[in-house]
Amino acid sequence: xxxxVTVLARLRAQPGQEAPMRAQAQSxxxxxxxxxxxxxxxxxxxxxxxxxxxxxxxxxDRAAFxxxxxxxxxxxxxxxGAELLAGPPEVRILGAAA
Length: 98
Known about the structure:
Blueprint: E1 5-12, H1 18-27, H2 29-33, E2 38-46, E3 49-59, H3 62-69, H4 72-84, E4 90-95
Antiparallel strand pairs: 1-3, 1-4, 2-3
């Protein structure tokens, strides 16, 4: 039996890069949802800090998430992140409680 995982990623835009970061984050939704094992992928902006985003991802198992990490659309987004983000994404990988 596979163990689902939930991934939380916090992204912070460089000042003045909020709109391009929003477009980049939204461009990830459709291709990620199309990946095998992706159960959900949602982006949220902090209404008090429009440059701060949380991405909540749910994957069927760790292998599906690892495959996502090797996807071309994620590699492209991470490469572009250097100009859009104030630092590397903060990522937490959570397993379901038994």
